[in-house]
Amino acid sequence: MKVISTEYSQILGARISQRLGVGLVDVKFSKFPDGELYLKTGALDDELVIVGSVTGSDALVQLLLLIDACSESENRLVIPYMGYARQDKQFHPGEPLSARAIARAVANSVSCIYTVNVHDEDVLRHFGLPTVNVSLGNDIGIYLKSEFSNPIILAPDDGARYFAEQIAGSGNWEFDHLEKTRISGEAVRMDPKNLRTAGRDVVIVDDIISTGGTIAAAAGMLYEQGAKSVHAACVHGVFTGGAYTHLAAAGIKSVICSDTIERACSEVSSAGIISKALSEC
Ligand code: R5P
Fold first, then answer.
1. Of 52, 48, 40, 43, whose CA–CA distance to 20 is shortest?
2. What's the CA-to-centroid distance between 95 and ligand 1, angstroms?
3. I need a surface site. Which of 90, 138, 164, 235 has the fewest CB within 10 A?
4. CA dihedral defined by 240, 218, 133, 149, rounded to 10 degrees?
5. DSSP E strand boundaries for the chain
């Protein structure tokens, strides 16, 4: 077995190959003069683990090209961050189920698909293949243990409560969830909730930080209620439209994410949990 990755998951791909103790296939990426993507892999003489986060259109096309280039062997596909997974409902006639479109596009010439904290496990059905979704809750909890002695862990909504519980389990910490209502793509409303956060270090945890609107709204409320410091931890650091700066400006003392999207603040690696899942199934 060997590992091969897109440009968007190159650090994670190398870490997975090290963890598994297997080789890494070299790939050269470039563009044609008209902007179309091109890639060329090194020798393919083994079963492959293809790694590629879908962080945007180029990442998706690169992943599709890579899957095609590798289609001679029996491969498994790791999608550490599955972009478009939040778009799995039709709110108006004529809208696509974008998660389904992406799933159908990549579920070609691979035998099994692995994801990390996919936004909603329900979307996995669209792959039409065996899937494994792993959670980084425990790894994020271990990281937080090295940074905080007794934080309170908060999810911004009840959908992320299970994740807060998983993280809190690492240190036997208190956890709870807030009441969030999404008003638009960028704006959310946080309803006040009586939590014992006064004088405490609070870590807000979520699967994705995109615009940062959710975390910023939660932090404002927590500081009003007397929190000593507010921090944020997520799996997928999308950080669109200057979100990281927006969070720092909102008084968030630290923001960390994992390497499902490769960032300077990717403090937690998903290589361990992905490698474990790959060696078990
Ligand atoms: C939504 O349900 C997700 O779990 C996140 O809460 C959301 O994607 C965060 O988005 P933003 O950072 O734009 O508020």
1. 48
2. 20
3. 90
4. 110
5. 2-5, 23-24, 27-31, 37-41, 48-51, 75-79, 110-116, 131-134, 152-155, 175-177, 179-182, 188-191, 201-209, 229-237, 252-258, 266-268
69 and 87 belong to one structural domain = yes
What CATH number does the domain containing 61 carry?
3.40.50.2020
What are the beta bridge partners of residue 182?
A: 188
pLDDT band with cut points at 50, 70 and 90 for residue 82: very high
pLDDT of residue 192: 64
The confidence score (pLDDT) of residue 74 equals 87
Between 192 and 277, the higher pLDDT residue = 277
Clarify whether residues 119 and 149 are in a common domain: no
Last residue of a domain, one of 107, 134, 161: 134
Clarify whether residues 88 and 150 are in a common domain. Answer: no
58, burial (CB in 10 Å: exposed 0-12, middle 13-18, buried 19+): middle
180 has catalytic annotation: yes
Best residue among 209, 236, 244 to mutate for probing ligand 1, ranked by most atoms within 8 Å of CB: 209
Q: Whose CA is nearest to atom 7 of ligand 1?
A: 208
Q: What are phi and psi of 36, to 5 degrees?
A: -70, 145
Cβ proximity of 41 and 51 under 8 Å: no
Query: How does pLDDT run across 181-225, given as a tens digit for each residue?
Result: 888 877 787 776 777 899 999 999 999 999 999 999 999 999 998
Tell me how far apart the alpha carbons of residues 166 and 153 are, in angstroms, rounded to a whole number.
10
Substitution candidate for ligand 1 out of 208, 215, 252 with most atoms within 8 A of CB: 208
- Does residue 247 contact residue 232 with C-beta atoms inside 8 Å? yes
Residues 17 and 110 in one domain: yes
